[in-house]
Each structure stands twice: as structure tokens, then as C-alpha cells.
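cron nightly-structures :: item 1 of 1
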Amino acid sequence: MLRFLSSRLRLERVVALWLLAALLALRALDPAPVEILRLKTFDIMQQVVPRQTPPQLPVMIIDIDESSLKQLGQWPWPRTLIARLVDKLAEAKVKAVAFDVLFAEPDRLSGPALADAIPEADAETRARLAGLPSGEARLAQAMANVPTIVGAAGYDKPLGLPSGGRATGIVSVGMKPEPYLDNYPGLLRSRPELEAAARGIGLITVRPERDGIVRRVPTVLVTEGQTLPTLDLEMLRIAQGGQPIIVRSDRAGVTSVAVAGRTLLTDRDGQIWINFSPHDPARFVSAADVLSGKVGPERLAGKMVLIGSSAVALFDLRTTPLDRLIPGVEIHAQVIENILSDKLLSRPNYAIAVELAVLAVLGLAIIALVPVLGALPIFLTGSIVAAGLLAAAWLLYTRSLVLLDLSYPLVASLIVYTVLTFFNYWREEAQREQMRGTFSRYVSPDLVEILVREPDRVKLGGETREISVLFSDVRGFTSISEALKSDPQGLVAFMNSMLTPLTNAILDADGTIDKYMGDAILAFWNAPLDDPEHPGKACLAALDMMQRMQAYNAQRKAEAEAKGQRFLPVDIGIGINTGQCVVGNFGTDTRFDYSVLGDSVNVASRLEAITKAYGIGILVGSGTAAKARTHVALLPVDRVRVKGKTEPETIYAVAGPASITGETWYIALQAALTQLQDAYTAGDWPKATAALAACRAADTHGIMGNLFDLYQDRLATLSKLAALPPDWDGVYTLETKQG
């Protein structure tokens, strides 16, 4: 087990695991860059599919705009003027009025205030001014005729201002919500006489995110030891009958807030995410036009009315995901629209757990698979998975208005993938350099003869021709290396003694040694010299290699027994394929090698790799089999789709020289194999099972190795299916390189 783990937890995987742990911790800490990435992702969602403004606006905004300031004078206006505005709204029979402004200071323009402010006036004038009602009294009188909510604002320092307002009805269910809510030490209030006349008090405090954009707003806040609702919730409560606001909490924080018969899902700190629509001037009515009568009462009747300002000089402009700057009062209006139309966005408390789980699963999958499958297959698979996750997040947003952030898991997974790809690239480059330095002197004797006769061919370039490629590899070489790890010279001697008979078998069959790759050999036929019988010679060379390895093993066994040493047999697998390749001198003007490149080389390598899975010593592709039948006896093995290929390939086992094709056992085995594959391809499992039994009986020489066990396992699985798969073609797909 330890050897297994050490062989898999290589340096790149250890580094990647630590990196993944760091990325998970970073998301849990949620520093500013991570939060901004998440918020910008949510912004893009809203920008692509913004909420549409409802055709019947439930809220109208009485706008203290630039035109009103120009006509009625600079702000603050006299409270008597505000009272006239409230009277107009009461006459229009609005549902409720809420002030997104503060009346924290006494009215400096009321009669009593002017009497004190103008000592130069005569006594009679001052007495008449002092006898007038205060601006607060006049406004309080107007507020008595329509349900009114006055604004208040959280402050960073305690103020201790007196309160004349009534307590707002807030009921908590479950855990106390106060520890999770935004808390302000001070409360900047409106004048006590106005609070006393109002139906409710609502906080106008809106705190943007780190980047200055408003995306969510609180529902209730804690200030000066009391819990108060925001202006929009309090207005909705009053306009819809005045029932208490219900705050539900658990150990994780606030879960929901209920107002006016609607339950709002919140963040753990009691905030709601606004589903913004673009800024719409239709929501706004100029305050001057209301006072002058230009706006008829029918436009305002039955509406909830917010009084606020869009004037730049009054500094109440905010940035949203959809608009650079909009009046802050419009945010309150959009919150009410969201609530009444059930269009609020939600980000559940479990969202971060889901996002961390996605990152962990993706990261571990990448760490496990990149060293096995390689960078490109993982990149393509990862792209498909990423597209699926993004589609899922998008569907959650568009259909359920749920905000799930998959930007960070995908970016973090890409970082892990990049690190692993770098390590793989670095490792492969190191291996290539080692192989170049070790085997650069190895060239075939045929090439030497040609270069001696035709030195002008020593140049870069190549030609395309049909080539038969042989790829052989030693099985169990790791065990042999470990047995000789204390004797490096013995390992070198073993390598030389093993490669010599294999090389001689290839050269005796007119093959060209391309290269040695550790315990593997790559050879080819039909270059540099033409050889029309190259497929057959390659197969005969493979049979010769197998015979020489038997003799080599017998010799080593006798030597080991004589010395009282442990004997480890050497077993090889061979893959052969024929096809078009580019062959020639590759390298630089001063350093080159005669080699072969092409798809047939890759297929030969894949065929060798799967010999172990089938338990068959020599496997050849269909291109080789079609042209080698006069030299060797072939038996069909399987139809497979090897790694890197889209088209299926029929593979064959080399049973022996062509002389055995007339023997009874060979004929019977060939017929049984044909019946097996025909029934298997047709999906006739009973017939295939019967043919499989015939194959076992016919294979008296044990040539087919593990093939029948593999078919038996496949048939056992397929026969349990209720129906044949719709894309069934009898082709077995090799997902990874075997061996």
C-alpha cells in the first residue's frame, strides 16, 4: 500500500493538494478580491437578464429634482412647504408616504424660528411670527391625514437624541437575530414631534459593497440598542395593514423576514439581494409639479409614495449593477417592487458550502486524472464540465432567482490544472533530454550503410511512405529494477543482455531500430530501404522475439538456480501497425536522428499497451493483418477504439507462422472466434455465450490469453441490461492507455 501511494503521490500531486487546500481556505476567508470576483459574476447575470419594470408601478417617487430646487428654492425647504406637499398627496388618496430624507434639525424658516433669527424686526412683527405654528407642528398636522413614515439613519457614534416616535412592531422567532444584524452605535433621527406624528420609522441607511456598488440592502438593523426596519419594509408594513414584521433566525444567522404576508429569504445578516431593473424615469414625479397641480391626483391615487431627491447637490446618488448612478430613493422603490412581485434574488446560507464542495470535487478530480490522462483530455473534459456547471448556475438564476457563485471554483480549478500541466511538461522535458543524451548514438546498420554510400542525404527532412511499425515493451520491469537496485552494474548488464536478442530478431528480419526507450523498442520496416513484404516481416520478427525471450528466460533461470538466486522471468508485449508515416532525418544541422513519425506509430504503441489486458503477446492492427496473411497465422481478437482514435480498429493476435493455418485446432478456433464476435456485435448474448464456450474449447494452445475472461465479464454486464444500448456497435472503447 505504501509503495502504491508513493508511486501516485508524486511531487506534482503533493503540490497540487496543498494548493487546493490553500484555495479552499482562501474562499472560506473570502478576502476582497475573491468577494469582488463573486459580486462581478452576479452583476453580469443581472446585466444579461435585467428585471423588467412592472407596467403598473406600485410605488411613485416624489422627486426633489433640479427643477424643483430651481422653482422652490434651495434645500432644506420650509416644513410648511413640505406640509403642503403632504396635503397634496393626502388629497390624491395615496396609500402611504415615506420620507427618504431626514428632518434632524429644527425648521429655521418657521415663524418662531424667524422671530428669533431677525432681532432687527419691530416688536409687532416678531410677535406675529412667534405666534405662528412651528414648521414641525404644521408638518405633523399634515402627516395626520395620511399614513406617513419618517426616515432615520444609522450613525457610527452614539448620539443620544430624544425620540418622540412609537416602537415599530418587530417579532423575532427562533434565535435572537441581533448578533447577526448590522449594528450602528448611533441613530440620527427626525424631530421628535414628527416621529410622534408618523405611523412608523424606517432606516434609510444603505451600505454599498466594497467596490461602491449597491447589490443588497438590510431588512432590519440594530441601532442604539433597538431593532428597527428599513424604510422600504416599514412603508410596506404600514401600507399593507400594519402587521408586525417577523424575523426568523437559527444558529447560522437570520434565515427570513416576513412582512405584509410575504416571506423574504435573507443572508445570515438579514440582508436581501435586489433584482434590479434599469433606471426608469416613469417612477419619478417632480415635487414642483405636484405642488403646482400639473400632476393630477389620478396618477398618484392608491400608490405608495416615496419622497426623495435626484438632485446631484443633495448627494444621494448610488451605483447599481445596471446603472452608473441612480437616486438612492429609487433603490427603496425597487426593493418594494421586488417584494410585491416575488422577484427578490436569494443567496441561501448553504451556498458557500456548495461552492466549496464543487471546488473540492473539481480539484481532486484534476489532481487524480491529469497525470493519468494528460493535459489535453482533462482540459476538454473540464471545459465540458465547466460549461455544465455554468449552465446549472444560470438556470438557477433565471428560473429560481438563486445566486450561486461558480466563478471562484472554476478559476481555482484552472489554477490547479495549470500547475499540474506545468509539472507534467517539466517532467516530460526532463525525460526527453535524458533519452536524447542516452540514446543519441543508436542508429540502425541499414542507415549507416546508406549514409556511407550517399552522404548527401545527411540533411533535415523526410518523406511519406507506408511503414510497418513495431513497438515492444517489457512487462514487470519495475520489479526487476527493484531487485537489482543495489547492483547498478548488474542492471546495466541485464538491460544489454535482454535488448541484444530482441534487437537481433528485428535486424535479422530487415527491420530498422528507431530508438530504445528504457526497456521498450521502437522499430520499423520499409525504410530507409524499400521492402514490399514489410507487414509480414514485422510479424515474423515479433514471433522471433518471443522465441528468443523464451530461450533467454531459460538461460537466466538456469544461471539463477546455479547461484541460488531468485529468478524473475522477462515477459514482453508487442504491438504492430501498418500505415502512412513520415520517415527521415529529424533534428538540427549538427544533431539529427533517423526516425519515423505518424499515426501508425501511436497505434502500434497503443496495441502494445493493451497486450497485457488481453494476455496476448502480439497484437496487430487491421492494416498489418490485411497484408501479412501470407507470412503468419492471425486470429481476430476484438474491435476497439484506442486512445487518440475516433474510428474503431479490428485487432488480431499473431498465432504463429502461416504454416499452422491448415491445422485443425487453428481452423476451429478461428471459426469460433468469428461466431463469437458476430453474435456479440449483433447483441445476441445467448449465442455469444455459446460461442464463447466453443472458443475456450478450441484454444488448446492457450494463444488467446485473457480474452475469453474479458468477453465473459462483458457479457455478464450486458445481459443484465433491459435493452441494447441505442448506440451499440460492438466496439469496446479503451478510455485510457492500458498496460
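cron nightly-structures :: done
DSSP finds 25 helices and 27 strands in the chain.
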